[in-house]
Each structure stands twice: as C-alpha cells, then as structure tokens.
Amino acid sequence: MATSTLPPRTRARTKPTGRAPGPAGDLRRPRRRITPMNLTLVLFVVPSVLLLLLLNAYPLGFGLNQSVRDGSLLDDGQFVGLANYTDALTSTAFWEAARFTLIFTVVGVFGSWIVGLGLALLLRTRTPARGLFKVLLLLPWVVPIVVSSTAWNWLVATPSSPVPQLFDALGWGTPLFLADPTLAAITVCIFKVWVSFPFMMMMSASALASVDPVVYEAARMDGASPRQQFTQITLPLVARSTYISWILMTIFCVNDFPTIYLLTGGGPVNATTSLVVLAYRSVFQNFETGSGVAIAFLMTAVLVAVSVVLYRQIRKVDTA
Question: Can you tell me where the transmembrane regions are (predicted)?
C-alpha cells in the first residue's frame, strides 16, 4: 500500500480547506449582470424617486437657507451663519419650551401607551358589547381636534364650567384649569393622552393578536402568575410593536401644534408653550423666520437622535 512521503507538517499545511484553489480574486462574488427586466424596473422607480426628492429636498434646502439668515416672511435677509442657532440655545424661552416639550412628550407617549395597552388587554377578554366598546374608544382619535379642544374648553375653561363646578361641589374649591400655569400644563398633558390612547390601543391590539394563545396556556400549566405572564411573555412578544409606536408617538407629540394651541394658545404665562408653538410664534407673529426655522431644525435633530436609539432597540429585538 502506498504511503505519503510528505512530512507531517507539510501534510497539515496541504489539508483541504473547503475552498476552491485559485487566486484571491476567484473568491469574490460574481458581478450581477444588468438584465432588461432589472433595467425596466429601475426606469419605473426613477420618476417616483425624483418626485420624492423634489418634494422633500427643496423644502429642506429652503428651510436650511432661511435658518442661517435674519429674514422675514417677505425678505430673505442677510446671511448670519449660526447666529440664529446660538440665540435659540442661549434663550431662556427656548429652554422653558424645551422643558415643557419634554414633559408633554414623556406623558403623551407613556401615558397613552399604558392606557392603550391596558384597554387592548381588556378587549381580549369576553366583555359585553365589545364591538360597541371598541367604536366608542376610537372616538377621541376619530373626532377632529378642533371639536375635542372646544369640548374640553367648555368642560374646564371657566369657573362655571362643569368640572370646576364638580370640584366645588366636592369641597375642593373652584380650580382654574386653564388660568393656573401648573394646572394648565397638567390639563394639556391629560388632553394629549386622551386624544392619543386610541392609536396606542390599536397598535397594541394588533401586536397582541399575533401572539399564540398556546403560549399563555403553557405558561399557566407551568404555574406562571398573571403578572409573570405579562412581564415575561406579553411585553417581550409585543416589544417590536411597542418601540415602533413609541417612535411614532414621540414624533406626534414633539410636532403637535393644534392640541396645545387650540386649548391654551401656549399660555398662561408661556406655561404650555412647546418648541413647535415657539417656532410658530417666531415665524408668524414676530416675523423672525430665521430663529423660528432654526428652532424647528433643532427639534428635527433631537427627533432623529431619539428615533435612532429606538430603532437600535428594534434591531436588538429582531436579533434576539
């Protein structure tokens, strides 16, 4: 029987590696050939891409140009560089508006999520008139914001409104919900939760519908309590939908102008002035286009940062 005459080290070096012999260039992926079908698909897509670029790139570029000028609605003004951004970041009004925007966003996102998730879990049970209950719960989201804000003004705006009268009948005095700065901020945040929880409820309900009931049956057989089922099964399984809803609701809250402006106008004493309301006042009331657009771009930068953080959480959930 023939035996190899190569020494052991040489034989080890010549051990098959699973790769085809040849130069390093042979290991590269083959180039994709452009087929008529691919070219046709590209030609169909190009007009839509160009249209989207025109609809988004032009306003973005125009706004960026306005943010570095001291112009108004009628005149572009002189180039001032980053002075508008510096003035905004060193302004007391900007940081007070940023503080309220943060509170408004945190309460709006997590308050509406807690209420929406709770109602979505409730709707999974056998409740009487569940279909009618769902429709009624969607009304705060379906009704136009002008109608909702008008109704809330009627409920809380004056001492003769129903809610202050109810507080007075209970011996708690007659609070001025929209005249006191603290109460006005609380009222606006509660109003935001009220108009936003149907969206969170629908997002949570769609995520819960994809969870297999067999998982809960197995957990109950293993002796898991309802609290353990919620924390170790429900929340992890709906985590992806939760992060997506948080991203969307954060954008909705930061950019929410009508909810605040129609209810309080940003008052009293600027207690409910958010960044978007401050930007509106700068542009359309003070006619300072540069500073208003600069505030808007600062808001955009924060929203992009928050979205990136939450998208990373979504990727972690997908790879888990």
Answer: 38-58, 100-123, 135-156, 176-195, 292-311
Q: Is residue 37 part of a domain?
A: no
Task: Evaluate whether residue 16 is within a structural domain.
Answer: no
Q: What is the pTM of this model?
A: 0.81
Query: Please, what is the end-to-end C-alpha distance for the chain in angstroms?
Result: 54
**b/e 141-170 (16+ beta carbons within 10 angstroms → b):** beeebeebbeebbeebbeeebebbeebeee
- Residue 55 inside a domain? The answer is no
How far is the C-alpha of 72 from the C-alpha of 74, rounded, in Å? 5
Beta bridge partners of 79: 69
Q: What phi and psi, each to the nearest 5 degrees, are found at residue 69?
A: -130, 160
Query: What pLDDT shows up at residue 32?
Result: 64
What is the distance between the alpha carbons of residues 186 and 204, in angstroms, rounded to a whole number?
25
Cβ atoms of 259 and 192 within 8 Å: the answer is yes
**Average confidence (pLDDT) over 203-208:** 90
Which residue from 270, 313, 289, 316 is spatially nearest to 94, judged by alpha carbons?
A: 270
As a whole number of angstroms, the distance between CA 320 and CA 311 comes to: 14
Chain position carrying tokens 């008529």? 36
The pLDDT of residue 29? 58
Instruction: Judge whether 65 lies within some domain.
Output: no
* Contact present, 255 and 276 (Cβ < 8 Å): yes
Strand partners, 69: 79
- Could you give the number of structural domains in the chain? 1
Question: With 80 as the cut, is the pLDDT of residue 5 above it?
Answer: no
Alpha carbon separation from 53 to 17, 47, 246, 278 (Å, rounded): 49, 10, 27, 29
- Domain enclosing residue 188, as ranges: 83-319
**Which pLDDT band, with edges at 50, 70 and 90, does 314 fall under?**
confident
